[in-house]
Amino acid sequence: MIFTREEYNQRLKKVQKMMQEKGVELLISHDTNNINYLTGYDAWSFYYAQCAIVHVNAEEPLCFVRAQDAGGAYIKSYLKNENILVYDEEYIHNWPSHPYDRLVDIIKERNWEKLSIGLEMDAHYFTAYCYEKIKLGLPNAKLKDSERLVNWARLVKSDTEISYMKSAAQISERGMKTAMDVINPGIRQCDAVGEIQKTLFRGTEEFGGEYSSIATLLPTGKGNSASNLTATKDKIVEDKDTIIELSGVYNRYHAPMARTVLLGKPNQLKIDTMNKTIEALNAGIEAIKPGNTANDVAQEFWKILDKYGIEKRSRTGYSIGIGYPPDWGEHTLNIYKGDMTVLEPNVCFHMIAVMQFGDWGVEASEAIRVTDSGSELFCNFPKELHIKS
């Protein structure tokens, strides 16, 4: 186990307290990150239906997985074997059967069919069919959205979680150094990312890396005016800016970082824009301290953009920690105007300053921890526009 039994118990008690406050007697958690948080289970099995089940008075959660994946649950989770529940192959891609038919049977077998059941209605991989099976199979249950209850429980990190994110940050730094070394005119984007990924997986001499919940992003040239573009076979050309967004991963914890590199002659407009972007990012970082809100951070960030007449409509940050595909955000706190979430020590988020201008753009981002008196950056890597002439 990568956490103590005591820490898992504390997580369970925190979640159960939140369940009581929301009137939830039974929680079905389909979010892959939440399953890991509650049980320790870690495998690439989330493309099939699986969930953690928490009764408000239980001493342990239940982990519901495909029978073929039970071995992984026995190895990776802290749960007693009897709390790992499985479904057989007959439920897989065999319309109208579905794994949640078996889940409904389990709930009925335990006489839970009349409880108030919380569902993660907006979780990745929780399909409309999952919901329909529960709704039709448990007509006497009181179904309700759990409102990302477990996601919010994950917001404030333990010291062990912070240590894992710091390890992930060391890997991120190495990955970004590799990016700056290999991005040169004429190299194919896919070859550059191949070298970056090699570094991210190798990690450090002390610990290795893992797959990231988001592919390494490498938009270049006109692609910088768009978001979330991945590498292609096209070559990187001189006098074009390239954005690299990546994350090291350790024990499923992420510490993302983004930087921009310009190949060829210095471009004063892009240098100036990058400097303004960094000024805004630093202004937001200066506002990070316990008691301030996400809105306070956003307001300071946008003050700088407004000063320079730069328009940005997207949020500039979100909470991070555990990550499984398709993203590394926790789906709770947003660094955006109007988000009144109060910052506490060990809240962690990815703060992103990306500026897009039609056919070019620049970006710098940081993974940040709220400390007792301010904030701490997980990564130590220059933010300035990296120029390779």
Can you tell me about this structure?
By secondary structure, the chain is of the alpha/beta class. It has 10 helices and 14 strands. The chain has helices at 5-22, 32-39, 70-76, 99-109, 128-137, 149-153, 159-182, 189-202, 268-286, 294-308, and strands at 26-29, 51-55, 62-66, 84-87, 116-119, 142-145, 241-250, 253-263, 317-324, 327-334, 348-356, 361-370, 375-377, 386-388. Helix 4 packs parallel to helix 5.
Offer a few descriptive terms.
Creatine Amidinohydrolase, Chain A, domain 1; 389 residues; six-stranded mixed sheet; alpha/beta; Creatine Amidinohydrolase
Percentage of residues in helical conformation: 25-40%
CATH topology of the largest domain, which one?
Creatine Amidinohydrolase
Unreliable stretches covering 5 or more consecutive residues: none
Tally the helices: 10
At CATH's second level, what is the architecture of the largest domain? Answer: Alpha-Beta Complex
Share in β-strands? 15-25%
Would you report the number of β strands?
14
In terms of quaternary structure, the protein is single chain
What global shape is seen?
A: globular
Helix and strand run: HEHEEHEHEHEHHHEEHHEEEEEE
Give a short synopsis of this structure.
The chain is of the alpha/beta class and 389 residues long. It has ten helices and 14 strands.
How are the SSEs placed, and which strands pair?
Elements: H1 5-22, E1 26-29, H2 32-39, E2 51-55, E3 62-66, H3 70-76, E4 84-87, H4 99-109, E5 116-119, H5 128-137, E6 142-145, H6 149-153, H7 159-182, H8 189-202, E7 241-250, E8 253-263, H9 268-286, H10 294-308, E9 317-324, E10 327-334, E11 348-356, E12 361-370, E13 375-377, E14 386-388
Parallel strand pairs: 1-5, 3-4, 5-6, 8-14
Antiparallel strand pairs: 1-2, 2-3, 7-8, 9-10, 9-11, 11-12, 12-13
Helix pairs in contact: 4-5, 7-8, 9-10
